[in-house]
UniProtKB/TrEMBL annotation:
Domain of life: Bacteria
Protein's name according to its UniProt entry: DUF3360 family protein
Record InterPro entries: DUF3360
Pfam families reported in the protein's UniProt record: DUF3360
Amino acid sequence: MHDTHHESEELSYKQRRKKSREFKTRAEYLEHELSIMNPKRWGINLPFRDYNFEPEDVVPALAGTIGKVVMVAAIVGVWATALQVQGVELSPGFVLENTRYEMIIVGLIFAFLFSGFLNPNANLAGTHGMMVAVIGSVVASGGHPLALGVSVAVMGLALSLSKGGSKLITLTGKGVRGGLLIFLGLTGAIKYVGQLKAWGASAEVGVPHLATVLIGVTIIVYAVLARFKMRWLSIPLCSAIAFGLAYALGAPFAFKTEPGLPNMNPAYWWGESTGWCMGLPTGAEWLAVIPWALLAVAMWPPDFLGHRVFQEMNYPKNTKALMNVDDTMSIASIRQAVGTLLGGGNLASSWGTYMIPAAIAKRPIPAGAVLTGIFCIGAAIIGYPMDLAGWKPVVVVALLVGVFLPLLEAGMQMIRDEKSAQAAGVCIFASALVNPVFGWSLTMLLDNMGLIGDKHRGKELKFADSVVIPGAAFAVCTFIMAAVGILPGIPAFLDKLM
């Protein structure tokens, strides 16, 4: 019996694979696929030998592509707006061209090559959505996009190589995780529903009831899909329904982005009168971005945590296909360095609009990553899909059903007793006071010390795990946020320090 088990362990993925018709349900087949995978970490992983493609892989690839267009355009758009306020004269098509450029970079190198072939345990390097709110302050404090991007890459690589990211996630209890996911899901849903309401009621659109109709239909469709265990279809199906309904209700839409390639020359993007029209950063501009880069990297652990949780909830227990947090941070750091040096404006993080649907669909990272890379490059070159993916009704509905509702559900599932409920409540309250990074770091410290949640947790952990590491994380995050002026009631003192 032991020899037979050992022999089965030695068999390759290809040898252990079975056809889907040999299983009673589709879910059983997909779980079997996950259980027999043995990804090579920083090795060559080939399609059909080490993993296979399934129809379910198309959904996270589409969702990830839609999310990528939306988030990169948001990041670059905020950069452009803030720089123009400071007197930098960017070209009218700057945001679109830089977004297309970033789509090609991430699609070709990091989705297709890294996550698809070299390390299937690393999630794709996506966009750091939390940083959208602070980019204006980065520019106002004298920061430079190239300096910020490179600084984030260096600090992120240091955290990943020291395995600090995975350590912080290990020390985050279930109650803290649940509270963080609920807060992110709820605030995101409220924000984007509000945006859709405002967009529909605007003079440009003139359809004030658009949000009510779209969200109402989306809720019904999502509920039906959940009932039949087909939530993995929610993003493409609900996005298509949103487009059709919004257009039928009279919302204006037109294709504007023609096929083509953006300028692929880094010298153009970092020229003094071309691209960013800023030239290379000065010493003062490098110093100005340090606190913001620390803040960006400090926000990574809760972001990465939220994505891995979905795999843990949907994958079988014996799988080797789970996302490696430290490797994902390494790839996000490398992606940040490469994208920035080439001229892109994106700020990297774990790719949530890909990972969450992929986990729900019970699919491993690599197959969908390859398709995502192809879709991103195709959308950037063809142009017209970027108009579809970036249209407000499609954006809002895709994010609601693909990110915010699943975040809410996962968070609620993690709160199963009074102890975890207490930690979750404190996390939500603290996050509402400042932001999710503050809420996560403070609650992790209190939870590990046994002051909230499980009172015995502090006694069971080593002193370093219960006090030193969580305390240092909280102190660093709080100091940085105070220095850059995002702690309520405390004026920024970064200028005085410099």
